[in-house]
């Protein structure tokens, strides 16, 4: 067995034992696996260099900014108005509650950064509405959980920065290979196909179960919801517009006025700048001003540190493991091993999608992106997959699949609790969603569909 596979097997075994069996936090499991690998490979002399690599990655600070923003948006509920508008628009059609769940939960999942948390927040509205429309309980649970976890691959989800770091941190590409705005456009291009796939599945299930439209009594007035919450509808514009402008006008406008270096640094600062700007706007439009006093915000972030710290800790340690793997030549050895299997492009794509599906059953998606991202990008690019597409799909094949596949598919369990559905029927119905997700991953990575930005 190649040494690279041995290292990966050791790390996986440690994480399984520590995280799944002993029920300890995943950042502890990743740290312990890092320490064990340092000992086995006798690389303790380089540990300070690995730590330096993990801490100096600028994308970590962007991730922190957006995690903080997600806490603020979730606690103040400033985007509830957006959900109400979507409900007023789509609730009137047959199966409208299911379509609302897909659209609203995908949007909310991208902002909140928490799959299970988003299921509980948005699902408290959409799941009862779906059940009253005739959706079986297990189907309502799975529609909501699958839509919520789709947010993991939609900017500004925290997994996005980890995927970009996996690409630009590689020597073959580097930070000048692609800007954050260009990367976001590609991610939106990929996400649109997965949103469409879920909408089509909702349509098919509605036909199968003869689902009805929502009751008119349950539908909010579009005029009233817009009047009350129009300010919240501007929040997506504040977050997304700067990246769209940077993508389309970087060469013709920003570079001419700021110079090449100025345009480059403006692009690289967008992630931190936009997270802070959106947070300030959320504070200004919050209905309950008692929630956004300095003391209340401080308590909000103090409570939310339990959410931020583990995610950031896993990423820091993941970057350290990545640096160690680079020194040990793990990527090159994995590539040689894959090439020795004599698989073509389709075989490699299916193989990696299967690996991430299986690993995602026991390892959180963000950890997979940080630790294995450079390896997967290198292998896929060697077989003809565009490296930007390979990186953009990392949050999908790792984060989304991790969230919907038991036993780590926490979204399904959260949906079950709200829908009051039984495990057996919910699990069997969930297999349809997992299979469709897998097929879509292969189709997109194979380049069978046009992707915005590529």
Total beta-strand segments:
0
Major sheet attributes: none
The number of helical elements comes to: 19
Q: How far is it from the N-terminal to the C-terminal residue, by CA?
A: 37 Å
Mean pLDDT: 79
Q: What would you call the shape?
A: globular
Cα radius of gyration in angstroms = 22 Å
Structural class: mainly alpha
Quaternary organisation: single chain
Percent helix, as a range, is: over 70%
Give the topology string: H per helix, E per strand: HHHHHHHHHHHHHHHHHHH
Low-confidence stretches: none
Total domains, how many? 1
Strand content: under 5%
Folded structure, characterized:
The relative contact order is 0.16. Helix 4 runs antiparallel to helix 12, helix 10 crosses helix 19 and helix 14 packs across helix 17. The chain has 19 helices and no strands. The protein is globular. It has one domain. It is an all-alpha fold and 454 residues long.
Summarize the structure.
The protein is mostly helical and 454 residues long.
């Amino acid at each position: 067995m190649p040494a690279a596979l041995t290292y990966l097997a050791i790390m996986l075994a440690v994480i399984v034992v520590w995280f799944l069996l002993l029920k300890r936090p995943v950042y502890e499991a990743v740290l312990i696996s890092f320490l064990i690998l340092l000992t086995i490979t006798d690389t303790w002399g380089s540990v300070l260099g690995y730590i330096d690599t993990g801490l100096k990655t600028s994308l970590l600070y962007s991730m922190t900014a957006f995690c903080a923003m997600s806490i603020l948006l979730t606690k103040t509920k400033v985007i509830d108005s957006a959900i109400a508008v979507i409900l007023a628009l789509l609730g009137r059609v047959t199966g409208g509650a299911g379509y609302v769940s897909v659209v609203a939960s995908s949007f909310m999942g991208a902002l909140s950064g928490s799959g299970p948390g988003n299921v509980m927040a948005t699902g408290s509205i959409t799941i009862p509405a779906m059940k009253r429309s005739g959706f079986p309980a297990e189907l309502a649970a799975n529609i909501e959980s699958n839509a919520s976890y789709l947010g993991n691959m939609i900017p500004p989800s925290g997994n996005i920065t980890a995927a970009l770091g996996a690409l630009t941190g590689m020597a073959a590409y580097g930070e000048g290979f692609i800007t954050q705005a260009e990367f976001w456009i590609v991610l939106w291009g990929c996400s649109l196909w997965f949103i469409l796939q879920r909408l089509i599945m909702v349509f098919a299930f509605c036909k199968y179960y003869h689902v009805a439209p929502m009751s008119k009594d349950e539908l909010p007035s579009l005029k009233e919801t817009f009047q009350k919450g129009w300010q919240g509808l501007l929040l997506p514009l504040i977050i997304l517009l700067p990246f769209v402008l940077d993508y389309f006008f970087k060469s013709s406008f920003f570079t001419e006025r700021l110079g090449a270096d100025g345009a480059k640094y403006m692009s690289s600062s967008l992630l931190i700048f936009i997270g802070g700007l959106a947070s300030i706007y959320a504070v200004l439009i919050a209905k309950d001003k008692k929630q956004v006093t300095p003391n209340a915000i401080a308590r909000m972030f103090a409570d939310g540190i339990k959410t931020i710290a583990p995610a950031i800790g896993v990423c820091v340690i993941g970057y350290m493991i990545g640096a160690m793997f680079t020194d040990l030549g793990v990527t090159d050895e994995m590539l040689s091993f894959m090439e020795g299997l004599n698989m073509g492009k389709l075989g490699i794509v299916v193989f990696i999608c299967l690996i991430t599906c299986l690993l995602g059953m026991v390892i959180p998606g963000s950890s997979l992106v940080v630790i294995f991202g450079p390896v997967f990008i290198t292998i896929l690019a060697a077989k003809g997959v565009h490296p930007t597409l390979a990186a953009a799909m990392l949050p999908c094949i790792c984060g989304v699949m991790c969230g919907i596949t038991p036993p780590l598919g926490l979204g399904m369990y959260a949906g079950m609790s709200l829908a009051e559905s039984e495990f057996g029927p919910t699990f069997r119905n969930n297999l349809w969603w997992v299979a469709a997700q897998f097929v879509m991953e292969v189709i997109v990575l194979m380049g069978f569909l046009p992707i915005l930005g590529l």
